[in-house]
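User: Hi! I'm working on a homework problem where we have to compare a predicted structure to a textbook description. Could you give me the structure for the chain below?
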Amino acid sequence: MKFAFYPGCVSRGGCPELYPSAVAVAQKVGLDLQELTGASCTGAGVLQESNLFLGDCLNARTFAMAERLGLPILTICSTCQGVMAQARYRLQDEGYRQKVNAVLADEGLVYKGTVEVKHLLWVLVEDIGLEKIRSMVVRPLTGLRVAPFYGCYIVRPSKVLGYDEHAERLQALERLIEALGGEPVDFPGKTRCCGFPILTINERNSVAMVAKHTWDAKERGADAMVTPCPLCHLNLDGYQVKAMGYLKDRIDLPILHLPQLVGLALGIDPKTLRLGRHLIAVAPVLDKLGKVAVKA
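Assistant: Happy to help. Predicted structure tokens:
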């Protein structure tokens, strides 16, 4: 199964542990990734607020590069997934696409409107399949209670993200946690904003959102939280200490990137998954899994 790989900026910047863990999982499950090394930033929704056309040109440029390879795009960033899905939806309009292609022509690129963009979460659940994933587990997450945190960009707007055609995406994280042997922990904030988008203009409210989500999950018995979004990870892990100050209580909930959780169950070395880079220690998760025998 071959994909044009779009890792996004944060997987090598703010969360450099994400890129190697995603590549290790891809190799383990048999995904052939051809990285789009010259691709543009998606604009992360921020650029689009001031110049939507420029944002769509940047994403159409990436789409054209993938089309030239004849491959669908795989991303490991929910924000990239959401922004590219919205651009792709607007670019279905042929007249609008022609205007965008006039800009791309300087690089000899043209976007024909055929590219598919899929997050690693969806590829694992829909293309590889939960039964196949379950058969590959060598270190089952038995006894580990994991709170799924989707965030915003991979669930809204549902129309452009394919939820009408793929209703299973609403529970993809929960079903994947189960396939890995873990127990999903439901909590009210799992599809709400993590607070990252307002961090620089209203840190107090952003930290309060981190406190609310992590405390709610912890109160319901979660040992860890998993997210497919590196920006959510930045906030939920990086600002959890401040959130504890806000609550005046301990939380200490480890936040795992999606490929880190999958990689643990598939037997990938924690060092390869860069689990030591988190601000909230992951050691309690490893201690709990250490009590579970690794299958031969």
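For your comparison, note the following. The longest strand covers residues 2-6. The beta strands are 2-6, 32-35, 73-75, 117-119, 145-148, 183-184, 224-227, 255-257. Good luck with the assignment!
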